[in-house]
């Protein structure tokens, strides 16, 4: 699974869970791959450092709905 938006979302979700993502930039560099691998290993997924649909869905499952809203409504383009 590729695409700046998907990678940015994964970075945001990893960072929110305490993984070492210093910059949410949509670039799947070495640090992002390493942190994806750590997450995948912790969730029993294949630890390959690739952003797959399964990995992204697992990341999304950790987000709790805010104020009863669907977690899929998470705004990724919020002002920085």
From TrEMBL:
Pfam families: PG_binding_1
Alphabetized InterPro entries for the sequence: Peptidoglycan-bd-like, PGBD-like_sf, PGBDSf
Domain Peptidoglycan binding-like: from-to ranges: 6-59
Name of the molecule in the record: Peptidoglycan binding-like domain-containing protein
